[in-house]
Design goal:
The chain has a two-stranded antiparallel sheet with strand order 1-2. A two-stranded antiparallel ribbon has the order 3-4. Helix 5 runs antiparallel to helix 6, helix 20 packs across helix 23 and helix 33 packs parallel to helix 37. The protein has 933 residues and is mainly α. It is elongated. A hairpin with a 5-residue loop joins strand 3 and strand 4.
């Protein structure tokens, strides 16, 4: 799997070097997987499972577990074998130019599908399940400029994701009841009860939506907007098999759950009938195969859902046969479309005479699909009919009748496909001349020929194939063993097969009358229209609710949030609060003084009408909080709070330039009293929550041992900084990623697009006799009326000092107050000072680099420093200490986590540079352009 994803990432580079030969390299990972799985045949025949566990997070005992039994082995061979053929087939299909993105995602999809069918953990299965959904969305929507691709991709994503979310709830419920998420443990000791029935029902929703079962079937034909190789793999051999695999996996343990058989034995046959009915109406041979796939998936779901040994064996055989013939047929459709330029069977004529070899390959694959002896499709269908005959009861008879009727339709659309693609049609107005169908390359038609011929050969070795599949069948406790043989004798299932073939031929021969019958029921099974209507309803409801709730008033939004906070958490705290018996009001009198100043500033800020006055007063509260941190013995927090408050004041001051000096020119409204009451309520609930939390601690604080761990494992004395870059470095990595997103969002709002390129402004030439000395290099970009010589002089003196202070805090922050975050803020403030003193030109002189590159570099440095220990046997984000003795320069205690901190520093500098350049220089540029216009 790692090789699949790794090669997929390298696909763009490979395409640049190898062009179309890239597909040979992309086909290697699935080919190697196929070979490795094939070498495990003795293990599978012996009835053993291949297991592997990789420790993920050892502290929490989280492991990535895989287990390959007979079922997983078969699916692994299907996924890797068909994947190899499809990727090689792409070499000729995309001869006009390699779509690198599609090729890379297709290989990544193969890796995700391989993980799905081999993982031994329900949570991991869900991860791979959703990866296949996302990759399928990207592959179907490969051409975002095409509306059909966008619509089909979105439909597939919505339908399968809804099913996946239901499945996730079922997974969590089942894992909670079983006490484990291990599939082997759950299947070996299946739990029972009402909760298990609900969990299994939710899992079936996910399986049915993924495998395009009624009423979710409509997304699969729409997904045929994807390139044909994608359809041949995702929608014939891989993705749609995920739901069948899940049902087959769970059937041995949960086939007796009350909801299991009624759901599957009703939905499966109905889907088979509906898919076959719709297939016989199609003129596009690719859509014909798509509805045929829906029909065949209904057949597979029915068989594997029965939950007996005979049905399990037959279901596994049907799954193999379908993968072979349907992948071959889809690839043949690609050849026809590529060579003839059309997929409309009304415009195809005489292709079989021109390309007899291709016609023979198609006939072999279609015969297997129709269940014609001696193909493996016939053997598998015989086994399935035998399992249905032994099901018994009125329900069993009804299911058997539906499957036989579905088989009749299957024979009909199989003949329609072969006739429509290769026959010479005398009643058509469009004949394809030999020159209109050039001979495909040998490799082009050899790829579909391989699975088509295998579908024939497996029919002659069905006995050994059945013995191989017995390993899965024997995991089912119900029913009697079955067998796969080409000739059972004169049995009822043989008679049913002959009946289906005969009636299917009759439908094809009298296709005009059958088409007239279908025209009397034009909307049968058209769930896509219902889906579109439902989505329009959702959109309309969203618009109405948005118009009601989103009033465009920030005070209304904040007021609603605050009111909910006061009413719900506040009432819960009042009813269930366990308040402390005594509260220490303060530790020293200075805290009282600072608290009083904060209260006064808050009251004055609430009464202020001027924007700048209010901002400065709010800043006083922030500096007061920093002082309280200092009084509590937390200089690092105090330093960070002061820097953050200063940055906030500068950013708000830059924003205020585009706003009026006052909040409102009107007198203060009476509603301010309601806002005052609500504010007091929010403050009271927050204070009450703090008291309750402090008085209800039942365990030792997690931070109690931070000081010890910070020194022993993080090799630093500054607990705060070591926590950020070592103990909780994952949190920090996520936070700097959020900072990048926030900075990009601000820049896009100001620049309405990409960031403006950074370039040094041209300097005005110095006139003869004019002074050459300037305090700031970019001050010429400011109007002479906006300059302040005193400010420029102080900036010239302060800037290098601030940069030195920031570097000092960066390199000493592991053992003293400071760190990358604080250092980055100081550097950002230094850049802000340069901008305020000399304008946009001075900012470019100070930092002639794109902010986005600084942000990206910072994140790359942090990530690389996080994974650097792994090649040397360490863990992600593990720190090492290096003590250097530099003689007269003294001893240096260097910790590798400092490199992570450097990344944090660069990200913060990039954010500050982005804010100043967008809210400062960007607004300046817009103002200047507006004044000129």
């Amino acid at each position: 799997m790692a090789v699949h994803f790794g090669v997929a990432v390298c696909a763009p580079l490979l395409a640049r070097w190898l062009r179309l030969r890239t597909f040979y390299v992309l086909a290697l990972p699935p080919l190697i997987t196929f070979i490795v799985l094939a070498t495990e045949l003795p293990t599978i025949l012996a009835g053993h499972a291949i297991t592997q566990q990789v420790t993920w997070i050892g502290t929490f005992d989280l492991r990535v577990s895989f287990s390959i039994g007979t079922l997983q082995w078969v699916l692994g061979l299907v996924v890797s074998g068909i994947g190899t053929l499809v990727l090689l087939y792409c070499r000729w299909y995309f001869a006009s130019g390699i779509p690198v993105r599609t090729a890379a995602i297709l290989l990544a999809f193969a890796g995700a599908m391989l993980g799905l069918v081999t993982c031994d953990d329900l949570i991991l299965l869900y991860v791979f399940w959703e990866l296949t959904t996302v990759f399928s969305y990207l592959l179907v929507g490969h051409n975002p400029a095409n509306e059909a691709n966008r619509r089909a991709a979105m439909t597939a994503l919505v339908v399968t994701t809804v099913g996946g979310l239901a499945m996730l709830v079922g997974i969590l419920l089942l894992g909670s009841v079983a006490g484990t998420f291990s599939l082997q443990a759950i299947l070996s000791r299946p739990p029972s009860g009402a909760a298990v029935s609900a969990a299994v029902a939710l899992l079936l929703v996910g399986a049915l939506s993924k495998s395009a079962q009624l009423p979710f079937h409509f997304w699969l034909p729409g997904a045929m907007a994807a390139p044909t190789p994608v359809s041949a793999y995702l929608h014939a051999a891989a993705m749609v098999k995920a739901g069948v695999y899940l049902v087959a996996l769970l059937a041995p343990a949960f086939a007796t759950v009350p909801l299991w058989r009624p759901v599957l034995l009703i939905i499966g046959p109905l889907t088979m009938l509906l898919g076959g009915w719709r297939a016989l109406r199609q003129h596009d041979i690719k859509l014909l195969l798509a509805f045929g796939t829906v029909s065949q998936l209904g057949f597979m779901i029915t068989i594997v859902g029965i939950g007996t040994q005979e049905a399990a064996l037959a279901g596994c055989a049907v799954l193999i046969g379908h993968a072979l013939f349907k992948s071959a047929l889809f690839m043949i459709v690609g050849i026809v479309d590529h060579q003839a330029g059309t997929r409309d069977l009304r415009a195809l004529s005489g292709v079989g005479r021109q390309r007899p070899a291709l016609a023979v390959v198609t006939i072999l694959a279609a015969a297997s699909m129709a269940g014609i002896p001696p193909t493996f499709g016939f053997v598998a269908k015989e086994g399935a009919l035998g399992a249905l005959l032994h099901l018994g009861g009125s329900a069993g008879v009804a299911v058997l009748v539906a499957i036989v009727v579905g088989s009749v339709l299957t024979v009909g659309y199989s003949l329609r496909f072969v006739w429509g693609t290769f026959a010479t049609k005398k009643d058509t107005d469009h004949h394809i001349e030999p020159t209109r169908f050039p001979a495909p390359a040998l490799g082009f038609w050899l790829m579909p020929a391989i699975p088509a011929v295998l579908g024939l050969l497996l029919g002659f070795v069905s006995g050994p194939t059945g013995h191989l599949l017995d390993g899965y069948a024997h995991t089912v406790p119900q029913g009697e063993p079955g067998e796969l043989v080409l000739w059972h004798g004169l049995t009822p299932q043989l008679g049913l097969s002959a009946l289906a073939i005969g009636l299917g031929i009759a439908i094809f021969v009298d296709r005009r009358r059958f088409a007239a019958l279908q025209r009397t029921l034009p909307g049968l099974g058209d769930a896509g229209a219902l889906y579109a209507k439902a989505m329009r309803g959702v959109d309309r409801a969203a618009v109405e609710i948005t118009a009601l709730a989103q009033r465009g008033s920030l005070p209304v939004y904040l007021g609603a949030i605050a009111l909910v906070f006061v009413v719900f958490p506040g009432s819960a705290l009042i009813m269930a609060a366990d308040l402390p018996r005594s509260v220490r009001p303060f530790d020293n009198p200075a805290q009282v003084v600072v608290g009083g100043l904060i209260i006064v500033a808050v009251v004055l800020a609430g009464r202020a009408r001027g924007r700048m006055k209010a901002i400065l007063l709010v800043g006083v509260t922030g500096y007061g909080v920093a002082f309280l941190f200092l009084l509590h013995g937390a200089p690092d927090l105090a330093l960070t709070q002061v820097l953050v408050e200063t940055v906030t004041l500068i950013v708000l001051a830059l924003v205020l330039r585009k706003l009026g000096p006052y909040f409102s020119d009107r007198p203060l409204a009476s509603t301010r009293w309601w806002r005052l009451i609500l504010s007091l309520g929010v403050g009271s609930v927050a204070a009450l929550a703090g008291l309750v939390a402090a008085s209800n601690r039942t365990a030792e604080p997690v931070s109690a041992r931070f000081a010890k761990f910070a020194y022993e494992f993080g090799y630093g004395k500054n607990v705060v900084n070591v926590t950020l870059v070592d103990i909780r470095a994952w949190d920090t990595l996520g936070e700097i990623s959020v900072l990048m997103v926030a900075a990009t969002g601000v820049a896009s709002l100001i620049f309405l697009g990409i960031r403006q390129p950074v370039s040094r402004p041209r300097r005005r030439p110095v006139e003869p006799g004019e002074e050459h000395t300037t305090w700031l290099r970019g001050q010429h970009s400011l109007s002479p009326y906006s300059r302040s010589v005193v400010f420029e002089v102080m900036t010239r003196l302060l800037f290098p000092v601030m940069i030195l202070c920031s570097l000092y805090l960066l390199f000493t922050g592991h053992n003293a107050p400071g760190g990358g975050f604080a250092a980055g803020l100081i550097t950002g403030l230094a850049l802000a000072v340069r901008y305020l003193a000399g304008g946009a030109g001075e900012l470019v002189e100070a930092a002639p680099v794109d902010a986005g590159k600084v942000l990206g570099l910072g994140l790359v440095v942090s990530v690389l420093s996080a994974v650097a220990p792994m090649p040397f046997g360490g863990r992600i984000l593990e720190s090492y200490a290096v003590d250097l003795h530099l003689g007269v320069l003294g001893d240096v205690h260097l910790v590798t986590s400092m490199f992570f901190d450097i990344g944090v520093y660069l990200v913060v500098v990039g954010v500050m540079l982005d804010l100043i350049r967008s809210l400062g220089a960007g607004v300046d540029r817009q103002t200047l352009e507006a004044s000129r216009s």
